[in-house]
Amino acid sequence: MKLLRKGKEKVSKVKKEKIKKSRGGINKIKHRDAKGKATKNNKKFSLHNISIGWKYGIVIITIFILLSISTALVSQTLFDIQDNMDTVEAQGDRAVLTTELSAQIQSKGLSAMNFIQFGNETHRSDFETKKARIDELLEFLGENIQNENQQSLYNEVLANNQALDDMFYNDIMENVGATEDIRRLYSNRFSSSTNTTSLYLEYLRDMIIEDRDQAVADADQSQAFAMTMLLASMLISLIIGLVLVLIISRYVSKHLNRVVKTSDQIATGDLTAETINYQGKDEIGRLSSSINTMKAQLITMINQISETSNQVRSESEQLNQSANDVKTGTEQIAITMEELATGTESQATYAGDLAETMKAFADRINAIGASSETINDSSRVVLEETQAGNTYMEKSISQMTTIDQIVKDAVKKVSGLDEQSKQITKLVGVIKDIADQTNLLALNAAIEAARAGEHGKGFAVVADEVRKLAEQVNDSIGDITGIVQTIQQESRSVSDALSKGNQEVEQGKDDIERTGVRFKSIEEAIATMTTHVQTVMDGLVTLAADSEQVNGSVQEIASISEESAAGVEETSASAEEASTSMEEVASGSQMLMDSANRLNELIRQFKIDEKHNKI
């Protein structure tokens, strides 16, 4: 009895010390987690707090902004080219207008001289018709004068034209039918004024042609600038976009590989893996936090299970020792049954002691049952936490699928840019067709000018300039076509780069899925452990029932001893029965020890840091 009491007190002390150590380890882990959370809260906004989808989204937005700026600059240059082309067209119209005006003045002079010679009303009517047309052309030309030199020449033309009209109405018409000398005098004066006016118009046309040439030169310069700007801006946009994609991909891959490495170690039972130090709120940060939390919970639970298992093993050893002691006592009772015949009082005393011992034994069995229930509850907690970890892994797989979809959308948008470049190529083809038609019209105009002879020379010059302009447009179209093809090639390069990034994301998703499978294996192993713990509890229940039967037998022995010394033989038989029951108790305690050892073997499959190790 004293041996049983000492064993019970020793087990109680060991149990209390281990519980204190376990609580201290848990408090340290909680304190460290709280400290880590406080550090996280003090961190300022950084790239770690942006989701992976938004990281790639920022790259795409940056490329889009750069391309938009490039498009705006090139568009402004194209508008300048269009303005210059409009100026060229207007200058060409004014040159044609001056040519026609010179021809009309020459024709009006011819009509005036014919009227001087013949005095025919038809020639006078023709003069007035030419005068009306000249006035109309002069009015239109005056509205498009652009500088002081042109204005000065225009004023001279107006003055000379007015002088011609005054000469016709005041002098020539008053001297119709005069002598030949007078008619020749007026004819020479009118011809001289007409030639002077034509000369002024020629100077004015030369100025207009110089302005047109300057506008063409400005258009060529704007075109060269547009080409250089387009190439430089597209190259810079593509280089910046590629560098940003590489930086983000490398950043994500680096931190995901660290998470995968840690989860692989945990999946193999190695809980000595270094804690993931990732201060961020993105998907990687949440995944890292979940894995760190799961690791801490697993270490805590395994330590608790280990402590409980050691307690079960220790108490099983005590139970086995007690069973052996009881067995030895019952054998001694069987030997001394013959001596008990001399006195029933001594026999009753021994029986009372034996009843008290069995009562203590029953109390110890009940305590072991309570410990087994604690082990079972801890096993269920471990199983629930493992299932929660598996759920987090499934959420991580879902996040990686979302990232994969975002990268695919980016590939589609770049493909859409390639389609827009193809539309630009079609528009360039349309412009080329228009330039070809302009060239053909210029050729027809040149043919018509050749047919017109001297009067069509100025028109021929204009037609030749239009033809040259159409050829320049054709050359520019060729350059633009090359640029658009370069854009299409670069778009395909970006699409290929995004496709490679998509493959890397899919590889990361596969790695996380494999980690999830390993978490599933851990879950199944813990479920098996829970089953074994339940088996131990069932054995303890059976053992408690057996101890109650032994206690009843001992009480029966005591009753028989008190009744009569004549029941010595019956008491001896009861002692033998008690010895058999103790053998069963010893066998049950041995089974309990074996179960505790198997539980410890399962726990030793996990590796834990020395500072957390309580196994």
TrEMBL record:
Membrane-crossing residue ranges in chain numbering: 53-74, 224-248
Taxonomic superkingdom: Bacteria
Signal peptide residues on this chain, from the entry's feature table: none
Keywords: Cell membrane, Membrane, Transducer, Transmembrane, Transmembrane helix
Keyword RNA-binding in annotation: no
Subcellular location, record wording: Cell membrane
Domain Methyl-accepting transducer: 322-572
Compositional bias annotation for Low complexity: 562-587
Keyword Membrane: yes
GO biological process: signal transduction
Cellular component terms (Gene Ontology): plasma membrane
Identification of the protein by name: Methyl-accepting chemotaxis protein
Record-linked InterPro entries: HAMP_dom, MCPsignal_dom
Main location: membrane
Family: Belongs to the methyl-accepting chemotaxis (MCP) protein family.
Record-annotated HAMP domain positions: 250-303
Region ranges (Disordered): 562-588
